[in-house]
Write a structure and sequence with these properties.
Length: 395
């Protein structure tokens, strides 16, 4: 264990089982550890480093902003947040934004917005229906929204007002809806819960049900948004529009940011209803503006779609060769490989030794979420390292 890792053990609450390398530098799709070893990064800060590490466009925007104005409060107007808001609205189906600092905070705010809507227009309805195997963040309310027992049980009793139902099952949403329901909140495809892709028609059916009942549809695009699944937002692939959408992760290339976006009709906060000291911070927003412009102007979602297909077909070839691979699935550059045994940790370790960083999604599954600027050649390199790791683990 290195000096830094010993200090971490001494000073930190041990909330993460960290991979035993200390990263000190990153460039493009690669990172380097303190010993100078290079790794191909298919974790990308948990789907955050959309343009790879230290992209020059982002580095320039952040450096200029840090030299100009680092922070004021939202008592005043600042330019980068307004530029970013305009770009988000012009390129999505939503009309208004609220900036915050993380995915959980964005979702928490989205639920507050839906409850406000419920108070104003739905006789005080406050309940939000969410899905099993979802992931919406780590605040207490978002743990209640997240339909996974392992995140909920340690913290019971949880805040009230959330009903978790089976994903990909419209009947489950219909039967959970009552006169207390103000919204349904879903990920278009579930990331943390297993890279679970819904059946054709599910999201459109949820939209139709929400319309029929006059309740809101909140779409959590924190992991799927900003090009990751092959379109700027995943909802574009399912031909429906949410009333509220949340973003975070990939928006500012690694600077902390979260966004609630809403249609005009759902944008019901008034002055003093919600707030955030750091939300809309000029440096984070300058990074977000530079990142989003680059994503849009350079067809990055399209690259994610094409290279993603290449990655998933390469993973599919491995599945045919190695019988202990039970499933391969993905959309764009969000993919998973599931094993018939709990070997994911061993595969992650073997990949690390080969110079590839991958995420252990579950004891029996890996997740791949490289930067969106990745090339087919880098995918080939990753597949080569992964195959050697599979050979080692499987033999
Ligand atoms: C779909 C989704 N929602 C919310 C979150 C929480 O985001 P954060 O960790 O920034 O609070 C995540 C994080 O993985 C996520 O994948």
């Amino acid at each position: 264990m290195s000096h830094w890792q010993e200090l971490e053990r001494k000073y930190f609450m041990q909330t993460v089982a960290r991979t035993p390398i200390t990263l000190v530098r990153g460039q493009g799709a690669r990172v380097w550890d303190e010993a100078g070893r290079q790794y191909l990064d298919f974790v990308a800060g948990w789907a955050v480093d959309s343009l790879g590490h230290c992209h020059p466009v982002v580095a320039r925007a952040v450096t200029e902003q840090v030299r100009t104005l680092i922070h004021t409060s939202n008592q005043f107007y600042t330019v980068p947040q307004i530029q970013l808001a305009e770009l988000l609205v012009q390129n999505s189906c939503l009309d208004k934004v609220f900036f915050c600092n993380s995915g959980a905070e964005a979702n928490e705010g989205a639920v507050k917005l839906a409850r406000r809507y419920g108070k104003l227009y739905l006789n005080g309805a406050y309940e939000v229906i969410t899905a099993n195997n979802s992931f919406h963040g780590r605040t207490l309310a978002m743990v209640a929204a997240t339909g996974q027992a392992k995140f909920q049980e340690p913290y019971a009793p949880l805040p009230v007002g959330f009903t978790n139902v089976e994903y990909n099952n419209i009947e489950a949403i219909i039967s959970a809806t009552s006169d207390k329901t103000c919204a349904v909140m879903l990920e278009p495809l579930q990331g943390e819960g297993g890279v679970n892709i819904p059946d054709e028609g599910y999201l459109a059916a949820v939209r139709a049900w929400c319309d029929q009942k006059g309740i809101l549809l909140i779409l959590d695009e924190i992991q799927t948004g900003l090009g990751r699944t092959g379109t700027l937002f995943a909802y574009e692939q399912y031909e429906f529009e949410p009333d509220i959408m949340t973003l975070a992760k990939g928006l500012a290339s690694g600077l902390p940011i979260g966004v609630i976006l809403a249609k005009d009709e759902a944008s019901v906060f008034s002055a003093g209803d919600h707030g955030s000291t750091f939300g809309g911070n000029p440096v984070a927003c300058a990074a977000g503006y530079a990142t989003l412009r680059f994503i849009i102007e350079n067809g990055i979602p399209d690259n994610a779609g094409k290279v993603g297909e290449y990655l998933v077909s390469g993973l599919g070839r491995l599945k045919k060769k190695y019988p202990f691979i039970a499933d391969v699935r993905g959309r764009g550059l969000l993919a998973a490989m599931e094993f018939s045994q709990d070997v994911a940790s061993s595969v992650v370790t073997a990949c690390l030794e080969g110079g590839l960083l991958v995420n252990r999604l579950k004891p029996n599954a890996l997740r791949f979420m490289p930067p969106l600027i990745i090339s087919n050649e880098e995918v080939d390199e990753a597949l080569g390292i992964l195959e050697k790791a599979l050979l080692r683990v499987g033999s």
